Amino acid sequence: MALIAPSRRLRRTPFSDAVEASGVGAYTVYNHMLLPAFFESPEADYHHLKKHVQVWDVSCERQVELRGPDAARLMQTLTPRDLRGISL
To answer: Of 12, 33, 49, 72, which residue has the fewest beta carbons closer than 10 angstroms?
Structure first.
C-alpha cells in the first residue's frame, strides 16, 4: 500500500488524531487536506455502512457563498434538493 508522505502542502484536520486512533487504513487528498479513504477495506466499510452507522471526518469540505443576481439559480443547479423555500 502506498503511503502519503508528510508535507506542509497537506493539512491535517482537527479530527485527524481521532481518525488515526480509530484505525484509518488510507487517506486521499481533497482540498489540500487529508480525507479518510477507508478503515478496514473499501468493501468491509461498505458492508458495515449498510448495517450500522458510520461517522466520517469531512472537514476538507468547504463552505462557499454565492452572490449575485443568478446565485439562487446556480445554487439550485448544484443540488438535487428543492431550494425554493429557503430565505435568501
So the answer is: 49
